[in-house]
Amino acid sequence: MRVVIRRVVRRLERDTTAEAIRRFRRRTGLAMLDTSRGTPTVRRHQRAQTIGAGLRSVASIVIWTIAIVLVLGALGVRLGPLLAGAGLIGVALGFGAQTMVRDFLAGMFMIFEDQFGVGDIVDVGDATGTVEQISLRVTRLRDVEGVVWHVPNGEIHRVGNMSQQWSRALLDLSVAYDTDIPTAKRIIKETADALAAEPGWSHLVLDEPEVWGVQTLGADAIDVRLVLKTRPLEQWKVARELRERIKAAFDAAGIEIPFAQRTVWHRVEPGTTLPGVPVPGDDGDPGTDH
Fold first, then answer.
1. The domain boundary residue, chosen from 155, 186, 206
2. I want to staple 258 with a disulfide (CB 3.0 to 4.6 A). Which of 7, 135, 176, 207 is the partner?
């Protein structure tokens, strides 16, 4: 069984096997489940090894159970009462192990469907972080603060993968209301295009930067949205560099990045004097706004 499992794992690691699976899914109408296109070889290797570990565990349990039963029978032990007792124990354990069985089944589906892999940054609801290990029962994540989360696979009801195949850097850039919007969009586009064309950054940007235009009309500023398609896990690095460059470009062009502004009306009662504030006339009006 171990030899067979090793051969299965090696076949799963091949590019030709992945292409055969995609053809099968297309023929059977399951193409929407195909998330393996463009899967790196290292990730395919990790997934195959995880599947192999699970198959080896199941095979060992089944084979050892059969072997023990056969040995007891050969020694003349009456198996009827033992099997009856084992059946009752199995039923009790089955009720108690429902959660574990659910975790194993959920883990198998997540691995076969390639929902995420080691190194991906995912949001599983209870925790968000980088995947460090995937087993059939539990997934281990490490968040940005360094905290390690062990999440049972059966408790993962939805997965948000931030690094599968490609990512997107999204920036909402605020400008003042008196800014000429076409000029601001041109400066943003030129700055993003220059970064995408540089040798040190061009390999991280997968497509031409796009300025989608005005996103919101806020209380203090107008937000202009810029998006770039990047390599997985590189969207934050590209976004940080772009913010720095666009800030410098706005300063050079005299475009203001506004701060919160408020107009305050202060009521001064008749007969009240404040430094720098004229005293309102006593004309019967309870007060004057300034």
1. 155
2. 176
